[in-house]
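Question (not urgent): is this output format expected?
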Amino acid sequence: MSIFGAIGVAGSGMTVYRTWLDAISDNLSNMSTVKSTDEDAFQARYVIAQARDYGGQGGAEVAGVEFGSAEGRLVYEPDHPLADADGYVKYPDIDMSSQMTQLIMAQRGYQANAAVVDRAKETYQAALQIGRS
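Got this back:
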């Protein structure tokens, strides 16, 4: 694999991790989104990644996005303006600790791929300097 191949593979990984980070931030920002009980709750987004082109340069790509349950969880809040006759509202079924764990994993993956791009760029620049000498 060439230096440019390494940059391409790491760049594809960065794209996947950035998409994952976007989904996590969307999930976290909508954790407190309240709906009435006759509406669907906010559905968490989960990024599906897959390897790409085993025979060629390789890398990763986003294969799709899965959505969490629209059922949500019922919470008793009788004073809430959206509460039903029994006093319940619907919140998304999103676990903050799970999302924070995924956030850390996605950040580290993104950082690792960014380091590969930086290292490959430094190697390429060193090779250019050798060619100039």
